[in-house]
Input
Amino acid sequence: MTDRITVQVCADDPISEAGVISLLRPRPEIRLDDGADDPAVTVVAADISDPAGYQLLRTAQHSGSSRLVLLVSRLLDHQLSLAAECGAAGIMWRASVDSDRLVRMIQTVATGDGHLPPDLQTRLLHLLGQLHGREQSLGAEREIDVLRLVAEGYDTPEIALKLSFSERTIKNVLHAFITRHHLRNRSHAVAFALRKGLI
Output
């Protein structure tokens, strides 16, 4: 079959590796990697809360261009973020792994899509919401710092130097603030910020 997906399997223990291989070997959709070709998908069965398991995932990430599937027993929020940073396109709980589910996930990931169990989707959305909130908070703090210095009479290069940002960043911060609040210019922005008690 020409459309078989080449899959590499690695695990943090030989029993897990043998178990995953035994699920995939009889499947006509899958060709287990023999080292001759670059695999399209790498299945990593590892506990990434353990340094050795995390290193295995990192090694798989850097070993080629294959898409990553991670099989785990548990995953804390920060480990979910680490898995995403390492390029895990699919995550499956080890307890729910069977041949059909694993092959479907491999096929999904091989086409460029991702797959997470519903409970991890909810947790990931929550994490993204928290991250967005932190970014908004940092953005607001940056705006206030810039506006305060504008109010004190500093020009763009001086503000950039004081805040350790590029001049382009300072201009972008001011432009975003002026545009968002429908203001006319920097002076109007300072007056608005003072009136609103922002500075």
